[in-house]
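Narrative progress, year one. The postdoctoral researcher (J.K.) led the effort to move from monomer predictions toward full complexes, under supervision of the PI. The following entry was the first complex the group processed end to end, covering 474 residues in total.
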Amino acid sequence: MDANLAKTIEDMQKRLQILEDKDALWTLMNRYCTEVDNHHWEAFANTYTEDGVMEVENWGPKRGRAEIAKAASCEEVFQGVIHSITNLHFEVDGSDTATATAYLTLYVTPDVKKPEANYCWGGPYRFEYRRTPEGWRVAKQHLRKFFAIGEDTEGLFS
Amino acid sequence: MDANLAKTIEDMQKRLQILEDKDALWTLMNRYCTEVDNHHWEAFANTYTEDGVMEVENWGPKRGRAEIAKAASCEEVFQGVIHSITNLHFEVDGSDTATATAYLTLYVTPDVKKPEANYCWGGPYRFEYRRTPEGWRVAKQHLRKFFAIGEDTEGLFS
Amino acid sequence: MDANLAKTIEDMQKRLQILEDKDALWTLMNRYCTEVDNHHWEAFANTYTEDGVMEVENWGPKRGRAEIAKAASCEEVFQGVIHSITNLHFEVDGSDTATATAYLTLYVTPDVKKPEANYCWGGPYRFEYRRTPEGWRVAKQHLRKFFAIGEDTEGLFS
């Protein structure tokens, strides 16, 4: 292969890798939401690195997978949990770390047969990621609360 | 072209194809929402395969494009319809079938000059897709209702 | 490089470029929302072309970056501003113009320590873009209001 051709192909592979890293982080973030929404607390915690940190305003930081799984499991009281994530924007540069900003709208419902009795709140998310031998993982989550609709009947988010 | 180079290029083409399949499904899903939100019931039904199935909790399954168009057309009574879709995650493997999970937040408004008189509800979506000669189509939709805000004045979703 | 190989590589580069243009527009749209949500009125206006037009139903068109920055700055009264954007679908063809449709859900909160005192509204977005020497910019935004939840205590959106 001549040098020009090798360079052209290497350049295309780097461009593909950036798009694939963003796609892999997109998959990670959807798994992140789906696992907790399905009450899979350990699988949720495993989307973090082993030394991962989850910061939710009013809760204080949770450090490591065991603490994170335990904190998330307070949502056990809700039959319906929806972490709806928007404006998910990744900063990726080909290295083994990345960051993201996003917005969360969370809907929690004690009894999905009574969908009108729900609590909705949300705010800005910030994420840090690390590429590990098992793939991308969340190294840090920070979440603020900017709005709320309905009543926090379980008193978990106030 | 030598064998190594041919292999390198074939590999890149497969990686590109995966990203393009996800992009095509993204386009399909946005068309899916836009057509129904614009009251284009037949165009909406045509985003399904001919034997497509639409399952909405409380409605029972609708089978085939004619039934799907008819079921969707009940939303005629709303001037404003917004199927807001988030956490759209595709499972794609290079074959002619694919699946997705997502969340729906639906806002329906009888008279958009009175935007405060709306009904909002949503829940988890599951999709199955098939690649057809006309491109990707929805083979099956399943939707649950987890939350609701406001009053279902038209009694369509209860 | 033989002609077949050159053709194969050129084709792949075009396909990559389409995906990268969509990714760049995705980045632009997230910056568009983040800048205004962070009260960076000038940086927000700079996501437009110099002759950009921002149309918000009830507001009338704002033309050029100075008018756009001034109009956006009315949101100064809200500590919490979240432009949550969904169904973001780009029409891109390899040229220097592009369009998009999307939905907005906007949450504004005068005092984030009282997140329950917020106003939420939204509707369909349409965008036109132009590729400039600085990258993609918004040439035109059009936004309609289809739904509202809560009370517009500041009277800015009615």
